[in-house]
Amino acid sequence: MTSEICEKWVQKLDKRMIAECRKIALVSDSCPAHPKEINPKLKNVTVFYLPQNTTSKLQPMDQEVTQNFKIHSPKRVVITALENNQSMPKINLRESISESSKEWN
Protein backbone atom coordinates (compact mmCIF):
# COMPACT_ATOMS: atom_id res chain seq x y z
CA MET A 1 0.00 0.00 0.00
CA THR A 2 1.11 3.56 -0.63
CA SER A 3 0.13 6.76 1.15
CA GLU A 4 -1.84 7.79 -1.96
CA ILE A 5 -3.91 4.59 -1.86
CA CYS A 6 -4.48 5.01 1.87
CA GLU A 7 -5.58 8.61 1.46
CA LYS A 8 -8.03 7.67 -1.32
CA TRP A 9 -9.39 4.90 0.91
CA VAL A 10 -9.93 7.32 3.80
CA GLN A 11 -11.68 9.79 1.49
CA LYS A 12 -13.94 6.99 0.20
CA LEU A 13 -14.62 5.95 3.80
CA ASP A 14 -15.57 9.54 4.62
CA LYS A 15 -18.07 9.62 1.75
CA ARG A 16 -19.56 6.36 2.98
CA MET A 17 -19.87 7.70 6.53
CA ILE A 18 -21.55 10.85 5.20
CA ALA A 19 -24.05 8.69 3.29
CA GLU A 20 -24.72 6.61 6.41
CA CYS A 21 -24.96 9.72 8.65
CA ARG A 22 -22.20 8.38 10.88
CA LYS A 23 -19.12 9.99 12.39
CA ILE A 24 -16.12 7.86 13.23
CA ALA A 25 -12.61 8.15 14.66
CA LEU A 26 -9.81 6.46 12.75
CA VAL A 27 -6.68 5.65 14.75
CA SER A 28 -3.52 5.48 12.65
CA ASP A 29 -0.04 4.33 13.59
CA SER A 30 3.23 5.51 12.08
CA CYS A 31 3.28 3.04 9.19
CA PRO A 32 5.04 4.68 6.22
CA ALA A 33 2.04 3.89 4.01
CA HIS A 34 -0.22 6.00 6.21
CA PRO A 35 -0.14 9.65 5.20
CA LYS A 36 1.13 11.97 7.91
CA GLU A 37 -1.71 14.36 7.23
CA ILE A 38 -4.97 13.36 5.65
CA ASN A 39 -6.99 15.88 3.69
CA PRO A 40 -8.48 18.24 6.31
CA LYS A 41 -11.74 18.41 4.32
CA LEU A 42 -12.94 15.14 5.84
CA LYS A 43 -16.36 15.66 7.35
CA ASN A 44 -17.32 12.45 9.12
CA VAL A 45 -13.95 10.82 9.75
CA THR A 46 -11.55 12.21 12.35
CA VAL A 47 -8.04 10.81 12.14
CA PHE A 48 -5.98 10.42 15.31
CA TYR A 49 -2.29 9.51 15.10
CA LEU A 50 -0.54 7.34 17.66
CA PRO A 51 2.85 8.63 18.83
CA GLN A 52 5.78 7.04 17.00
CA ASN A 53 7.27 3.79 18.32
CA THR A 54 4.31 3.06 20.60
CA THR A 55 2.43 0.38 18.66
CA SER A 56 4.30 -2.46 20.39
CA LYS A 57 3.51 -0.93 23.77
CA LEU A 58 -0.12 -0.12 23.02
CA GLN A 59 -0.79 -3.35 21.14
CA PRO A 60 1.51 -5.98 22.67
CA MET A 61 -0.50 -8.81 21.13
CA ASP A 62 0.60 -7.62 17.69
CA GLN A 63 4.19 -8.46 18.57
CA GLU A 64 3.37 -11.95 19.77
CA VAL A 65 1.11 -12.79 16.83
CA THR A 66 3.68 -11.51 14.35
CA GLN A 67 6.53 -13.34 16.06
CA ASN A 68 4.66 -16.66 16.21
CA PHE A 69 3.54 -16.33 12.62
CA LYS A 70 7.12 -15.72 11.45
CA ILE A 71 8.40 -18.69 13.45
CA HIS A 72 5.77 -21.26 12.52
CA SER A 73 4.87 -20.35 8.95
CA PRO A 74 8.20 -21.34 7.33
CA LYS A 75 8.19 -24.63 9.27
CA ARG A 76 5.06 -25.78 7.44
CA VAL A 77 6.80 -25.39 4.07
CA VAL A 78 9.96 -27.19 5.26
CA ILE A 79 8.01 -30.06 6.88
CA THR A 80 5.88 -30.53 3.75
CA ALA A 81 9.02 -30.65 1.59
CA LEU A 82 10.73 -33.15 3.90
CA GLU A 83 7.65 -35.39 4.09
CA ASN A 84 7.54 -35.55 0.29
CA ASN A 85 11.31 -36.11 -0.05
CA GLN A 86 11.68 -32.86 -1.95
CA SER A 87 14.22 -30.11 -1.85
CA MET A 88 13.10 -26.70 -0.67
CA PRO A 89 10.36 -25.59 -3.04
CA LYS A 90 10.23 -22.30 -4.84
CA ILE A 91 6.98 -20.72 -3.75
CA ASN A 92 5.08 -18.16 -5.79
CA LEU A 93 2.91 -15.44 -4.27
CA ARG A 94 -0.34 -17.41 -4.57
CA GLU A 95 1.15 -20.44 -2.81
CA SER A 96 2.63 -18.21 -0.14
CA ILE A 97 -0.76 -16.65 0.57
CA SER A 98 -2.37 -20.09 0.66
CA GLU A 99 0.24 -21.40 3.14
CA SER A 100 -0.12 -18.25 5.25
CA SER A 101 -3.86 -18.76 5.35
CA LYS A 102 -3.44 -22.37 6.48
CA GLU A 103 -1.00 -21.29 9.19
CA TRP A 104 -3.30 -18.52 10.37
CA ASN A 105 -6.24 -20.92 10.64
From TrEMBL:
GO molecular function, one term: DNA binding
Pfam family, one: DDE_1
Xref: InterPro entries: CenT-Element_Derived (IPR050863), DDE_SF_endonuclease_dom (IPR004875)
Domain DDE-1 stretches: 1-104
GO CC annotation, single: nucleus
Coiled coil residues, start to end: none
Protein name: DDE-1 domain-containing protein
Lineage: Eukaryota, Metazoa, Ecdysozoa, Arthropoda, Chelicerata
